[in-house]
Design brief:
The structure is a homodimer of 214-residue chains.
Chain A: H1 15-36, H2 45-52, H3 59-62, H4 66-88, H5 95-112, H6 114-123, H7 134-147, H8 156-176, H9 183-197, H10 201-208
Chain lengths: 214, 214
């Protein structure tokens, strides 16, 4: 299906507009790559434009500053992750199952989407400070579980921070030693998260044994 | 008791040596304060020497670089915390009780030792990358609990990272809203940590209800 079918009244984009959008996206992609290599904010604009394979001078046609670019790039990574979670959790209403899906999916990014995984590993707990992505969905599901009496924890934010901490530990460990982290390590973290939230151990194990649709 | 009683053969320190040591300590204390105010690495050497109330020029008599000073200062905060934990956990052999003491003590730093708490809140998960302090003791106790069959988790490092993540979430939350974090929030996190490690919920609650000696 063509995009026009969804937005019949959208103005036609000129070739110049499209090229501009491509250059902007090349800068964002370069920023994401630099972030995942741990160079992020330390990279110069020169390095960013070289990485994006565009002229140094055109940077400021798209972004006011390096900080603005990295902000947009981080946002983009978060939204990509969020959309993946929304697909994988579509139709699931039990908050415990949703949390398990979130942890299991995010941990598997280590090999399915190393760029996003690298971003989380570097960002550490700052990853949950972004309004979109991880934090909003996780908090919403934890609160739903509290309201339904499914989780016994009182402080949703602290619990989310613990789960995010475990996730970063796992992703950092995978980066240091690829062989040490596999599906069973990720699923173990999902069980730990459910137990932490107050789901009985046996039920946590049962939930995490369900097939994961991605 | 005088120090000489413990080190009778130590060379006598001259007044100059003592003054040098005081200046060095003033720089370390200033660095710790700047770190806990979130300025840490961003502070200039000028700001550090002003904060320490010493002349700009004498900085390099004590440290080669800002990075070296902050490294030493972080180490010092970690060792201070470690010594507090060793006192509070002296004589306790059950790894589950030791982990609970560690979490309960560290969470209470928010009001007993705001400087150390601020350091942890800022450092985030990097706090467990230091070889001394938090990481070494926590890992040792988690491994002892695995060996004793007290904990069911397989990956000690990931579990430690989750507990540290919850702790940072709690300390950051306390800093944002002092009234929202009290002893019961800290003790709740200790229970969450024990459940995560694989201690049954009822037993985790019983362990955390024990009096805490500090």
């Amino acid at each position: 299906m063509e995009e026009a079918a969804f937005a019949p009244d959208a103005p036609k984009t000129s070739r110049l507009d499209r090229r501009k959008a491509r250059t902007r996206q090349a800068l964002i992609d370069a920023a994401v790559r630099l972030m995942t290599e741990g160079r992020g904010e330390r990279a110069s604009i020169q390095e960013i434009t070289e990485e994006a394979d565009i002229g140094f001078g055109s940077f400021y046609n798209h972004f006011e500053s390096k900080e603005q670019l990295f902000q947009v790039a981080s946002q983009e990574v978060m939204e990509l992750w969020g959309a993946m979670f929304d697909r994988a959790s579509a139709g699931i209403t039990d908050p415990a199952v949703r949390v398990a899906v979130g942890v299991r999916l995010t941990g598997r990014l280590a090999w399915t989407h190393p760029t996003i995984a690298g971003f989380f590993a570097d960002a550490g707990l700052d990853a949950i400070e972004f309004p979109s992505g991880l934090a909003a969905r996780g908090l919403r599901d934890i609160r739903a579980g509290q309201a339904a009496g499914r989780f016994t924890v009182k402080e949703a934010e602290v619990a989310l921070s613990a789960i995010a901490g475990g996730m970063c530990g796992l992703l950092r460990r995978h980066r240091r030693d690829l062989e040490n982290v596999d599906e069973s390590s990720v699923d173990e973290l999902a069980e730990e998260a459910l137990r932490l939230l107050g789901v009985p151990a046996r039920e946590a194990a049962r939930i995490v044994a369900r097939p994961l649709s991605t």
